[in-house]
TrEMBL record:
Pfam families: APH (PF01636). This is Phosphotransferase. One of its GO terms (cellular component) is endospore-forming forespore. Keywords: Transferase. Residues 34-279 form the Aminoglycoside phosphotransferase domain. It comes from Cohnella zeiphila.
Amino acid sequence: MANPLPQSRVRQIVRRFGLIPLRTDSVASYYRKNAVVRVQTENGAYAMKPFFRSNLLRTSTIDQIKAAADYIQLLMNHDFDSMPKWLASHTGKLWTLHQGRPFYVCPWINGRRMESQEDFEKLGRALASLHEASRLPSPVKGPFYSHIRLWQNQDRLFRRQTAKASQMNKRFRRWYKRYGASCNRISDRSWAELKSPEIAGLLEKEMTCPALIHSDITPQNVIIADDGQLYMIDWDRVKPGSIYVDVANALMNTTHFNPVFIHSLLKGYEELRPFDPAERQLISSLYRLPREAWLAARFPNRSRSRSMLDIMEETWPLRLKAMEILDEWA
């Protein structure tokens, strides 16, 4: 939503979910100025969120919200408690359509960001609970491998683009001269490990017994509520996928390369679902991939790409140390 919805439209939408709003206000996210509307009622606060289509999938917005709502219903049926429950609309669906855009509503979670060893253990347990509670009854085709296939394509594009680094801006050329070869060596090692029979077998096995993954675990999408309960929010990208990708993403996006947080997240996860040696190696291999560099190379003149490169440069020693920690754990 580029502009905030008028309050009259907000009221019209939330009334379909049985809510009578007293006050509403738009709240920004990291990427969008008006990402969600906070709706205050006599019975508490709720989040009214527009559903945004994923460009990585070829299906329509309606098909994607239908699939997401089915997955959310499955999690609610399994009493998964680390997710705000979506409200049913007057039609019985977990979403409603307004002027061509789907919206859904869930309780507003007041709380704070993760900041302690205990918080990261909670995140690990929540992820393990998600992956164990959402095993699907049939094999998955197509979107299951989207993350790994996407990363392979991004790596190939990165190497093609950087082969012409002289044509890029000075900022990127300087960065690539210092870190490009290391990124490629790290990637080569990971891709070689992912081709090993043990790991290839794990990925093949997952397709016969898939689980749901959140797909977007970031610090902004994890809240420690006032009562201490951990909630993962923003479930627009929930889908069948690799639990190993979900764990590797969570480690990369949330722990800030802090060894204590890395071990805490893994400890919490393995309290509910221990990993065998091959699974540990798979997670370590996926964690190592320099995905920010690949994204930045696609649009080197964008400010966000420059920020990515700056962050990678500032954290490079910490990243290498974190890779060593994951290697030792594996």
